[in-house]
Amino acid sequence: MPLRDYRDLVEANAQLTQWVMSEAGNRIHDTARTPPLTRFIDTEQAMLKLLPSAPPKCARWTQAKSASRLPYSGGTVPLLRTMATCRTERRCANE
Question: 18 and 42: one domain?
Answer without folding.
Answer: yes
